[in-house]
Amino acid sequence: MVGGRVDADMNDAAVQDALQFAVLKHNEGSNDAYLSQVASMVRVQKQVVSGVNYFITVRMARTNCTKNNTNEVCAIHQDPALARPYTCTFTVWSQPFKVLEVTTIQSGYHLFLTEEARTLDLRVKTSHSVKFHQLNMKILNKNKLEIAEGVLFKHLPQSYRVYGYLYNINRNKPTTQEVVVDSWPKFKVIICRPDPKIKGVLESRKRVACYSTEEQALRKMLMDDNVIDWSLDFMTGGFDLSQAPILKEVSSVRDVKFRYMCAVHLVYLADSSHLLTPTVDNDLESRISSLDISHVDLVNKTWKFGGNEQSYNTVKHFISNYPSYCITDGQDQPVSWILLYEYCAMGLLYTVPEHRGKGYAKVLVSTMAKRLRAEGHPVFCFIEEDNIISYRLFKNLGFTEDPSYRAGWIHFNYN
């Protein structure tokens, strides 16, 4: 029927031409920072109006590389198994068909791209357009990450979550994240996301962190198909709670399950002189030490969000690469401990029930905070609003907060 949509043959030559053109345009928007290719076709519809419109839904696979512009050579040829999957719908129309000159893709060093595939004879039309959310997203390299850290420092405390990631990355700490911005050098949105190039990243709990100075820019960034892999089970936390409606809106548009987990206080140590130092006798001082790999299972079993293989790998990552403190009993077994997250926040504070009420948590928080301040680290913690005991503990030790700011935690694609 003229004007209505009908299903079309996926193997039709005109459909393949239209898809080829759409994918080329899709990749042009990446500034050659990655290459997306069709993994499978989901559905094709066509509409006859003044020409033929095609609505092509495909499953795409994206591979990353370290190129920051088209003049650089790709330094990473990624394992196909690590390609990011996502669904994309292209709308392509012609009014009328015209023959284009041969167009050459510049991404010749990327995975899967054969010599034959680098030149496309687009027997499609100059008037064709592709409708999709595509921004001039930038993946930050080492130099840009250092600049971005300085920018985020000016936006503390609200930017602490993303700032903490960049702080550790810039000091060569092991990371599971890569960092993208909506534009450079002046950015309104910065996002830390799991980096599939890093071995084992998908075996640990996946986290996404974002900081934005403008809601509309954040909405556009999240609607870009190439910013976040929405097929993953991941958490985003430490975000401005006022931006929760945007995250809910985007998840609804993408048909992604959305679970609001908690609201949290963001407390931080503004000045070392504000830190209260509890009295520690010689016996207790002799029992303060660090956690090691042999304690991963213990911490994982007692962690509120632990108890599975992903959380086990996450705890192992924390203990292996970041500071931790514990207090041991007479058998040298940890009975109270505190760790540091990959984004620099103190957390996983826990004391086994039979040793509570002895002031161990207060001693560990103070000890960790003193060390972090001495080494120049940011000192902060996210505390769930219903955890009144921990909130009072940190406040009594000299931590402060912005009373007008609340952060949130959301779980996407949860099982």
Automatic annotation (TrEMBL):
GO CC annotation, single: mitochondrion
What residue range is the signal peptide?
Answer: none
Supply the EC number(s).
2.3.1.-
Q: Which UniProt keywords apply?
A: Acyltransferase, Disulfide bond, Transferase
Highest taxon of source? Eukaryota
Q: Which GO terms describe its molecular function?
A: cysteine-type endopeptidase inhibitor activity; glycine N-acyltransferase activity
Q: Domain N-acetyltransferase, which positions? A: 286-415
Keyword check for Disulfide bond, yes or no: yes
Alphabetized SMART domains for the sequence? CY
Please give the CDD domains that the UniProt record associates with this protein: CY, NAT_SF
Q: Which family does it belong to?
A: Belongs to the glycine N-acyltransferase family. Belongs to the cystatin family.
This chain belongs to which protein, by name?
Glycine N-acyltransferase-like protein
Question: Which species?
Answer: Solea senegalensis
